[in-house]
Design a protein that fits this description.
The protein has two domains: 169 residues, Rossmann fold (3-Layer(aba) Sandwich), CATH 3.40.50; 87 residues, Pantoate--beta-alanine Ligase, Chain: A,domain 2. The chain is 38% helix and 20% strand. It has eleven helices and nine strands. The strands form two sheets. It has a six-stranded parallel β-sheet with strand order 1-4-3-2-5-6, with helices on both faces. It has a three-stranded antiparallel β-sheet with strand order 7-8-9. Helix 7 crosses helix 8 and helix 10 packs antiparallel against helix 11. The longest helix is centred in the middle third of the chain and has 16 residues. The chain is globular, with a radius of gyration of 19 Å.
Length: 279
């Protein structure tokens, strides 16, 4: 496995790389969810590239960026064990050189949910992913559906900008108690970790309501909120029942819905989602 840190080193390493190339963009502190993306990329690609870059432009608060967990040596060891060929681990100045003055801003699909809760977040995501797509030139890039809206934003960006990299989305990987794997989970205390599966229980309650015949989206939101209210550590940012394509909030569920939520536990912001269809 080779580790490169500059754009020039990356281009040189990729010049002789066997095709197709699969890219797994990450912010490090890897877990089984990331490794599932690497496994899929390994199965479909002659060369697997992982990027490790904590992107400051997608954090609304400097403190959140500073607290984001980091351990490069651990991440590199996990990449090597998973069969990664090339790791791109640049500095901020390498990704955003002095004078950098471009923002990739996606429209309607980036507006609600995380876009409303974290203004500017998806500008940061779309900008860095566009840079990575341009630098790596991968045939495919792999993302997890825990960040459902992010996947929608990146697909829209790649389509609109005619970027040839195919966006491959994989299902959320969960711990046995249902908590979606996330690098942020490492910041939870034992008590916070014990409380965090309430997100999954809330989604399951909402999904059960829909599958039992419930069509009133407000009632589904209330079912989710009722579960969250049982956990004293849960600080609810939002619960949503939205159209899976447009992400606009629904009043009535007809063909399906995306249930999603953002909840703070001990100041750590966790998100999750579930796609449901009426019977």
């Amino acid at each position: 496995m080779k580790v490169v840190r500059t754009r020039a080193e990356l281009r040189a390493a990729l010049a002789a790389a066997r095709r197709p190339v699969g890219l797994v963009p990450t912010m490090g502190w890897l877990h089984a969810g990331h490794l599932s993306l690497v496994e899929r990329a390994r199965a479909e690609s002659a060369t697997v590239v992982v990027s490790i870059f904590v992107n400051p432009r997608q954090f609304g608060q400097a403190a959140d960026f500073t607290k984001y967990p980091r351990n490069e040596a651990r991440d590199l060891a996990m990449c090597e064990a998973a069969g990664v060929d090339l790791v791109f681990a640049p500095t901020v100045d390498e990704v955003y050189p002095p004078g950098f003055d471009t923002v990739v801003s996606v429209g309607a699909v980036a507006g609600p949910l995380e876009g409303a809760a974290r203004p500017g977040h998806f500008d940061g995501v779309a900008t860095v992913v566009a840079i990575l797509f341009a630098l790596v030139g991968a045939e495919r890039a792999y993302f997890g559906l825990k960040d459902y809206q992010q996947v929608r934003v990146i697909r829209r960006m790649a389509l609109d900008l005619a970027l040839p990299t195919e966006v491959v989305a994989l299902e959320t990987v969960r711990d046995p108690d249902g908590l979606a794997m996330s690098s942020r989970n490492a910041r939870l205390s034992a008590a916070g970790r014990a409380a965090a599966p309430v997100l999954r229980r809330a989604l399951l309650a909402g999904g059960s309501h829909v599958r039992a015949g419930g069509r009133d989206a407000h009632a589904v939101r209330e079912a989710m909120l009722a579960v969250l209210a049982t956990e004293p550590l849960a600080d609810v940012d939002y619960v949503s029942v939205a159209d899976p394509e447009t992400l606009e909030e629904l009043a009535t569920i007809t063909n399906g819905a995306l249930l999603s939520l953002a909840v703070g536990i001990e100041g750590v912001r966790l998100i999750d989602n579930e796609r449901v269809s009426p019977r």
